[in-house]
Amino acid sequence: MRRDYAWLGVRTRGFTGCSPKVRHWWRAGLIGAVTLLAAVVAAPGTHADIPYPDNDPFYAAPINLGEFINGAILNSRPIAVFGLPLPVAGWQVQYRTTDSAGEAAADVATVMTPLTPWTGPGDRPLLSYQIAEDSLGTRCAPSFALRGGRDFSIATTLLDVPFLAEALRRGWALVVSDYEGSQSRFFDGVNSGRAVLDGVRAAKSFAPLGITDASPLGAWGYSGGAFATLWAMQLRASYAPEIWFAGVTSGGVPADIPAIARSVDGSYQAGLAVLILLALARNDSGSGLADALDDNGRALLAQEATSCGGDLVVHHFFQHADDYSTVPDILGSQAFRAAADHQELGGWAPDVPLYLYHSNNDDVIPSVGFSALVDRYCALGANLTAIHSAIPGHNPAAAGEALGAMDFLSDRFNGDPVDAGCTVR
Description:
Rossmann fold, alpha/beta, 2 domains, globular
């Protein structure tokens, strides 16, 4: 799930009463995102100068795609990150991956590194950072925004600017994959997880980035980005066993997909329920969910075929998923549950050190699902620290708990050991 999109209307419910540190992170994040958005919009050129991925030949898969191994680099180009003169070297790399149907696919990742030399211990770390794409179309992909695209769709990427900037300030290299792929498969766990892992493979082999076999690896994602991050970690041992992650952090974790959809259905964020419904109906033809859509639902599926989560929220204030269904309570229907069940986290326990966090009063993703997922991971033998955050709200918790997530990664990159078993607080 994308974070609370109401920040676009400068909504701050749940922010008052937070500690000064939380308020500092939250204000810095919001100000930073708005400032960068203004800079990007004011910069010379328009989005026509940066074509959408569907119209950009760089994204087109080569005819001989199937001849390449997973993670192989197919193409690359240097970029000015956000189209601005920032002290960051950036490139986009197209790489081979395998989608959830077992077919060869070509995805794109943006890789970045600070221009300053690495002064920490060992070699420069690489952080795989998963932005919440939450989209039905590739114009919402992070690579479009990070290359300097100018469009409302870049708002989702801008929400993560403070965290990307802090990672770069700490000297870490970054790989940011368009893990939904060319078909924009939101809430497709296998598709997303494989794309993340193959993006790391590509970044490690991309010589200009300067990552070595001794570079420690980390991963981080929040909300929809946490979904992709944790699916990647669940698949790591079987799909990319040669890649070891020193530490992985994820927050605002989307667990119990039906509960998420129900929590926002009919609310000011009802568009997120619509996003989940349309994505699952489009992605899982065998579930019968698409057949449960009425004429309005089928028209909506075509109408919103390239929409971002933010678009859908704006388009569907206070609407209900049942407005597009031939069956009552479509979010509780067998078809919806079947489609959602295939994508739920928790089927396997990641075997890497985890740091998970979630607000006890998350206003987008109910915390009950997070608690159940933590219990599931612990029962399966995971080594994790789970933070049940007292910071109220989805976005405030993202900001307020970010320092803990960053420091966990720093400790792992420094080689500090992690306690075995589960620590829940």
